[in-house]
Structure formats: structure tokens, C-alpha cells
Amino acid sequence: MSDHEMEKKLMRIISDIAEGRYSDEIMELTRYDVPDTTRTIAEAVALMMVKVEAREFKLQQLVDELKELNEKIRKNTIAAVTAMAQALAARDIYTEGHTSRVAGFSYEIALELGLKPEEAEYVRLAGALHDIGKIGFPDVLFSEHDARLPSELVKQISRHPAIGVKILEPLDFLGPAIDYVAAHHERLDGKGYPRGLKEDRIPLGAQIVSVADIYDAITSERPYQKTRTPEETLVILHDIAGTRVRIEIVEALEKVLRTREQT
Hints:
The protein is mostly helical.
């Protein structure tokens, strides 16, 4: 290879390195039989490349460590907020375990409807946190009472989705789960709360949580209502499908229940 060809090769290699394409090709120009000027430049470039690669490797390590730390913080924060929601439900012996069951049903229904696991996870989180807005409510809400609540207490209850959103908004990694919490008491006919959303304006995830919430509430023991069987509850859900909830979600719940029975 002539001196001119070596110089052209050196310039090409330097150009590749500048664009982030590293290789060992530069080492061929550090041999003793290469002209002094070309060899000196090649040695300097090779040393620089090694240092850059080392720094990039260290930077990638730091990025990976930061990602790992952020994920740990995310999981710990979700665990803490979920524990708060579970503790809230535990104030009432009749709703203890409710959030965990709603979360489980929500996730399984979402998968049954064809959502991807990562999408279903947001629905599960919403199911776990859907009543977080009841924090700070008076104890009378969690004590035994009949179906007729004082009007002021009813107003407080209707505010819990909006309060939940305010609590969860700083946790932006919850993504669409916050919207699902906000809208889990909306109805297809627009008679829900807090915003009176209708039909397609209600996120699918919110409707899934709504169905899971209704199902668990009706099949669980409550002081103001008789516990219904799963079969009776499905009849009720079918009766309100189309006006309150989407029929395809009720049908997905039926499939989930059949699957649970078979396992």
C-alpha cells in the first residue's frame, strides 16, 4: 500500500470514528512499517478512540443504573400508594380486599379483550387505586349503614374520583391509569360522575374497572345489600349493559370467570 493510499485510509477511518463507527482497522496503521507521520496520527487517534469507548461504556453503565433506580422508585411508589388504598379499604370489614380483587379482575378482563400486557397493567393499577380518593373521608362512610346515605355524604362520595386524580397526578409514570381512576364512575348514558362523560368519551380502561368494581361489590357481603351469586350478578350486569357499561366488557368478565372455574 502506497503512502498516499495509507493517508486516504487514515482519513476514512478518522471520518468513521467521528461518526461513531469504531473498529480495529486503525491499528493496521500503527505498525512499524507505516510512515512516521501517518503512524503517529494513527496512534493518537487509536488512543483517543479507546478513551472515548471507555467513557461511552461508563456513561452507558450510569444510564443503566439510573434506569434501574428509576424503576425501583416507580415500583416502590406504586407499592406505597397501593398499600394506602388497601389500608383505606380495610377501614371497613365489608370492603377489605376489595381493591385487590378489582385489580385482579380488571387485569384479566383487559387481557381477555385483547389488550397487551403492558396496557393491561395500567388497567390493573387503576383497579388497585380506583378508591384512593376516599382518603380523608369520615369514618361514617366506612361504618355500617343502610342504603340511604345522607345527601352530604353522597356528595362527598361522588367527589372521590376527582380527589383520586389530584392524589395521583404527580405520579406521571402511572400514565393512563390516572384517567381510568378519574372516569371509573362514568356511564355510557352520561348519567355518571364526576364529568358526565358519554359512550366513547369514557376510556376503555375506566369501563373495565367499573365492571370489575360493580361485580365485586355485588358479590361481596355489604351491610346494606344481600350478597348475590356470580350468576345473579352477571344478569344484573347484562341488564345495565348499553346504558351504564359496555356489553363486550361484561362478556369478557364471563369468560374470565369461566377460566377461573376451570383452573
